[in-house]
Amino acid sequence: MRPSQPIAGMPRSGIREVMELANSIDGAIRLETGEPNFNTPRHVCEAASEAAFDGFTKYTSNAGIPPLREALAAKVTERNGIDATADQVVVTSGAVAGIYSAMVSLVDPGAEMLLGDPSWPNYAQMMTLLKITPVHFPLRPEAGLVPQAADVEPLITERTQAILLNSPGNPTGAVTDAAALAELMELARRHDLLVFSDEVYDEISFDGPYTPAAPLDTDGRVITFFSFSKTYAMTGWRVGYLVVPPGVSPLIVRAQEPITSCVNAPAQMGALAAVTGPQDCVAEMRDAYRHRRDLVTEFLTGRGIPHVRPRGAFYLMIDVSGSGCSGKDFVLRLLKEKRVAVVPGDTFGPGSGRFVRISLATATDLLMEGVERLADAVEEWGD
Asked: What is the pTM of this model?
């Protein structure tokens, strides 16, 4: 059977390719996946279970149940500094569905959309499916992998409709500072670009709070994406949400009807318990990721392995060019000879091939063993 043109042209995620290879290797240390090694908090599971047993298993509004939308509006107002009402919040099947629905709703087929190199590969996959052309701007190690307006502006054409920003970032761990973000927002205003701001790691910032984009928005061009997946270790629950300027949510809701209809009803009740319940679990997970970040960066510095110190999320980019291998060849050899799974940098952008990404979201002892094997490989193969 012949695939459609968009599917035929869409590259596979390099993350998934490594995952499948690692599944076939006994005892492989798994540093490739952005999957918290914590369980979903018990009170969240109990809330969803109780809702299901009480019969809360029917369709819900396309936009999400009103109590959850109201709670999320309060959350982003209080914790993210985004002054929003419940009407500006749409609950989605993970942030993935939120980003896809927003692209369908707001970006024309044939348009160009700017995104960083490196960036999460699913962005470009979505654009391919929707016949939007991804245009990469460089994220430079010397700038901490933070986007710079001066690198973006030369790439803007009459076809450019939007820019996608991600802070705290995947795969970089970079947190865009207020000054750099203000320059990017001014650029978007000058060129009348939509700003898609992926802030799903908003609660995982190590060196002080991150800066959200929406409070810098003076003319209604920012769409902000959030998720329960990483913050509350709810990856399999598939609950996310987006916050839009006034009047935009009906467009997203209209797109969501044929894509996902609505989010799982009991999962929405679990999400409500997560956002309104105790937040100690969030701080505990963030502190664990920060501790692992510090251990890994200290170790890599001691071994002389170049890397970019992450300021948020739970990823770290390591330069493995000293091995003499390309990133992809290094990853395959590392998995085969050292039984460690990491992701090649070219998965995240055409200019990132000398890097690999590791995830800090694994048990500390396994993480450190995997990083030690990686460092050994760089030194051994580079001789």
From this structure: 0.95
Contact 68, 271 (CB under 8 A): yes
Q: Which residues contact 311 (CB under 8 A, 6 or more apart)?
A: 144, 168, 173, 174, 175, 205, 206, 207
Residue-wise DSSP of 147-201: --HHHHGGG--TTEEEEEEESS-TTT-----HHHHHHHHHHHHHHT-EEEEE-TT
- pLDDT, one tens digit per residue, over 70-79 is 999 999 999 9
Compute and round to an integer the Cα radius of gyration of the chain: 20
Look at domain 42-276 and name its CATH class: alpha beta
> How buried is residue 198: exposed, middle or buried, by Cβ count under 10 Å (0-12/13-18/19+)?
buried
Question: Is the CATH number of domain 5-39+280-382 3.90.1150.10?
Answer: yes
Helices and strands: H and E segment counts in the chain: 13, 13
Q: Which H or E run includes 22? A: helix 14-23
- Tens digit of pLDDT for each residue in 232-274? 999 999 999 999 999 999 999 999 999 999 999 999 999 999 9
